[in-house]
Each structure stands twice: as C-alpha cells, then as structure tokens.
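User: structure tokens for this one?
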Amino acid sequence: MKRRKFLRNSSTVAAGIVSAPILASYKEEPAVKETAKAPILPITICTWDFGNATAKAWEVLEKGGTALDAVHQGVMVEENDLNNSTVGNGGRPDRDGNVTLDACIMDKDGNCGAVLAMQNIANPISVARKVMEETPHVMLAGKGAEQFAYEQGFEKTDLLTEESKQAWEEWKKTSQYKPIINIENHDTIGMLAIDADGDIAGACTTSGMAYKMAGRVGDSPIIGAGLFVDNEIGGATATGVGEEVVRTVGSFLIVELMRQGKSPQEACEEGVKRIIAKNKDKQDFQIGFIAINKKGETGGYCIHPGFTYRTYTKEGHVNNPSDSYLKS
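Assistant:
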C-alpha cells in the first residue's frame, strides 16, 4: 500500500475511534437567539450654523437617499448662497482679487475626489464628485480642475460678487492679513451623514481664507486633513486655520482615535489638544472639529469659544455650541 493512501486510511479509522465516544456524549445545545440590533437612525451634522444645508441633507435622508447624496446636496446649498462670503459663489477673493475654491467628498467605500484652487466654477463639490466617479485620480488642481469641469458640462461663472469686490478694494488700502477668530476663520462647511443603511459619507467645501496668497490651499480639500471617513468606524471634518489641521492630519487622527475606542467627543478633544501642543506659545487662531461614529454618536470641540455645529435627526434640528479648550 502506498504511504499516502495508508496515512489517509489510518487517519479515517482513528477519527472514527476517537469521535465515537465524543458523539455519544454530545448533546445539542439550544440555539442562541440573536438580539436585534438597534437600527441606526439617519443623521447629518455640519460645521457652524448652516441650518439650510443640514435641512437639505436631511430631506435627502428622509426620502431614503444615500449619505453621499445627502452631504453633496447639503453643502451645495452654501456654495450657492451669495450671502455666504466664505463658501462657493460670492466667496472672498485672494489678495489678487481671484476667487479660488476648494472641495472634497468621500463615500462609504473610501472613494474620494477633490479640487484645489479652482476658479470660475460655482459648485466645486460637484466637480470633486466627478473627479471621484469619472477619473482615476483623487485630486485635480487649478486650471486642470477648471478644464475638467468644462469637459463635464459645468458653466463658467464669475464668482466675484460686487459685495466681495468692494470688501477686497477696502482691504487693499492696508493689505493687512490677520484672520479674525470665528469670522475670517468661519470659512468652511464640512458635513457628515449616516443614511438608513448605516453608511457614512462626508463633504467639505470652502473659498478659503479671505485675501490669502494666490495658490494657497488649506486643509479643506485634503483627504485625511479636512475630511476623512471610514465606514467601519466613523467620520470627521474640520474648520479654521487649515495649515494647523494639515500638520496633524486632523480628521484622520480623530477617526483613528475613535477606532481605538474613544467617543467622537473625546476624539475631537484630543485632536485639538494635539494642535495646541504644537502651538504652545501661539493660540490666536481657531480650529473646530466635528465627528460622528458608526452608532450615530456625535462630538465637537474647538480652541476658542464661538464655534457651533448643526445636527439634524428625527429628534430635531439643533445648533450645538461646542465646548472649547480656552474658556471665555
């Protein structure tokens, strides 16, 4: 008999000898009933008091729409609001008088798209989604992003409104660049949502700091800095002086802290403290983080008092004052 066949036959016999008494003594245990998991209720959350944006996102969610569509349509509300001088059409220009827009979007599968320093296109979040869905790339910048937008059917728009132009002309009299806490830093809408399927998505869009240097890009369109989503854990987004968020890869950090077991609130607080640790002698700027985890729990934290964030759930539409590292 060949060795391989012998070993196979021997193993079969041995298994029968060993298993017989075990099977004889085995009693089937009653099946354990699975406890029903509490359903994840839809929720949307955004930086600052952009109630019209969260209302639009909630409308999408309430009709059974995806988290991706909710955040996309939600932040577009602010991009199209000419009275909002910090996002989209009507945003304050750079010091050369050009309005340049940044945006990014991220879905439940980790797909993402972004545009940086793009001119003449009113809805950068829509172009960012096209980058995600129609190209092999994650980011397009400047003239390349603008050209791509035209190829996708977007119209050329003069983004510099008369109000923003007059404010820029007034600024040029002194050309003093000193961002004011909770005013010039109030420059971004970042939004996160969970839909009825429990999937998470996020979006972030801005015209950036008023009177910035030409070509300046902050954290808002940078995946991992201004926005990050991990559908297994949660998501986070940021507002404020983007350079400081980039230095700590802030949104990614917060999601990773939640992965380690911290609540969204605890993670946001740690994210701010990491930034403070790098700026021990310089705290005259604002940073605000918001986060959401897979359970639908939320959190928000900032450096200076004044930052708020909106939440919309079946229980209501609320503007939440954020706790802060520095007190009034």
